[in-house]
Amino acid sequence: MAISMTEAAALHVRRSLEGRGKGEGIRLGVRTTGCSGLAYVLEFVDEVGAEDEVFENFGVKVIIDPKSLAYLDGTELDFVREGLNEGFKFNNPNVRGECGCGESFNV
Prior knowledge:
single chain
Protein backbone atom coordinates (compact mmCIF):
# COMPACT_ATOMS: atom_id res chain seq x y z
CA MET A 1 0.00 0.00 0.00
CA ALA A 2 1.33 3.43 -0.89
CA ILE A 3 0.45 7.07 -1.29
CA SER A 4 2.60 9.37 -3.41
CA MET A 5 2.95 13.10 -3.88
CA THR A 6 4.24 15.08 -6.83
CA GLU A 7 7.07 17.53 -6.39
CA ALA A 8 4.61 20.43 -6.88
CA ALA A 9 2.37 19.14 -4.09
CA ALA A 10 5.33 18.57 -1.77
CA LEU A 11 6.61 22.10 -2.38
CA HIS A 12 3.18 23.59 -1.62
CA VAL A 13 2.82 21.55 1.60
CA ARG A 14 6.39 22.37 2.70
CA ARG A 15 5.77 26.10 2.21
CA SER A 16 2.49 25.89 4.11
CA LEU A 17 4.15 24.07 7.01
CA GLU A 18 6.97 26.62 7.11
CA GLY A 19 4.44 29.46 7.13
CA ARG A 20 2.61 27.75 9.97
CA GLY A 21 5.84 27.33 11.91
CA LYS A 22 5.14 23.74 12.98
CA GLY A 23 3.82 20.41 11.81
CA GLU A 24 4.88 16.87 10.97
CA GLY A 25 3.17 16.81 7.60
CA ILE A 26 -0.27 16.66 6.05
CA ARG A 27 -3.05 14.16 6.72
CA LEU A 28 -5.00 12.82 3.78
CA GLY A 29 -8.23 11.09 4.63
CA VAL A 30 -11.81 10.52 3.55
CA ARG A 31 -15.12 11.30 5.17
CA THR A 32 -18.66 10.26 4.33
CA THR A 33 -20.47 13.10 2.59
CA GLY A 34 -21.91 14.38 -0.66
CA CYS A 35 -24.04 12.75 -3.28
CA SER A 36 -21.46 10.10 -4.21
CA GLY A 37 -20.55 9.05 -0.68
CA LEU A 38 -16.94 10.08 0.09
CA ALA A 39 -14.91 13.29 0.06
CA TYR A 40 -11.21 13.96 0.55
CA VAL A 41 -10.01 15.65 3.73
CA LEU A 42 -6.66 17.41 4.10
CA GLU A 43 -5.35 18.81 7.38
CA PHE A 44 -2.04 19.63 9.02
CA VAL A 45 -0.63 17.07 11.45
CA ASP A 46 1.33 18.15 14.51
CA GLU A 47 1.67 14.66 15.99
CA VAL A 48 1.60 11.29 14.21
CA GLY A 49 -0.67 8.72 15.85
CA ALA A 50 0.47 5.19 16.70
CA GLU A 51 -1.80 3.60 14.06
CA ASP A 52 -1.11 6.14 11.31
CA GLU A 53 0.70 5.13 8.12
CA VAL A 54 3.37 7.61 7.01
CA PHE A 55 4.54 8.02 3.42
CA GLU A 56 7.32 10.48 2.60
CA ASN A 57 7.85 12.12 -0.78
CA PHE A 58 10.32 14.91 -1.54
CA GLY A 59 10.95 15.32 2.19
CA VAL A 60 7.25 15.83 3.05
CA LYS A 61 5.17 13.37 5.08
CA VAL A 62 1.68 12.29 4.04
CA ILE A 63 -0.09 10.71 7.01
CA ILE A 64 -3.04 8.36 6.54
CA ASP A 65 -5.29 6.66 9.08
CA PRO A 66 -5.85 2.91 8.48
CA LYS A 67 -9.55 3.25 7.57
CA SER A 68 -8.86 5.89 4.90
CA LEU A 69 -5.94 3.94 3.43
CA ALA A 70 -8.33 1.29 2.10
CA TYR A 71 -9.96 3.97 -0.12
CA LEU A 72 -6.75 5.84 -0.94
CA ASP A 73 -4.21 3.11 -1.71
CA GLY A 74 -2.29 4.06 -4.85
CA THR A 75 -3.41 7.70 -4.78
CA GLU A 76 -1.10 10.42 -6.06
CA LEU A 77 -1.55 13.87 -4.53
CA ASP A 78 -0.77 16.69 -6.96
CA PHE A 79 -0.97 20.48 -6.77
CA VAL A 80 -2.11 22.15 -9.98
CA ARG A 81 -2.61 25.66 -11.27
CA GLU A 82 -5.23 26.17 -13.97
CA GLY A 83 -5.62 29.79 -14.96
CA LEU A 84 -6.40 31.77 -11.81
CA ASN A 85 -7.33 28.64 -9.85
CA GLU A 86 -4.99 26.41 -7.92
CA GLY A 87 -5.50 23.45 -5.65
CA PHE A 88 -4.84 19.83 -4.86
CA LYS A 89 -5.76 17.15 -7.37
CA PHE A 90 -6.26 13.55 -6.26
CA ASN A 91 -5.28 10.89 -8.78
CA ASN A 92 -7.01 7.97 -7.09
CA PRO A 93 -7.12 4.68 -9.05
CA ASN A 94 -9.87 3.34 -6.76
CA VAL A 95 -12.52 5.89 -7.79
CA ARG A 96 -15.40 4.32 -9.71
CA GLY A 97 -17.60 7.39 -9.97
CA GLU A 98 -17.84 11.06 -9.03
CA CYS A 99 -20.71 13.42 -8.46
CA GLY A 100 -21.45 16.07 -11.06
CA CYS A 101 -19.91 18.89 -9.03
CA GLY A 102 -16.71 16.92 -8.38
CA GLU A 103 -16.88 17.26 -4.59
CA SER A 104 -17.44 13.60 -3.75
CA PHE A 105 -16.63 10.16 -5.13
CA ASN A 106 -17.33 6.46 -4.64
CA VAL A 107 -15.16 3.35 -4.82
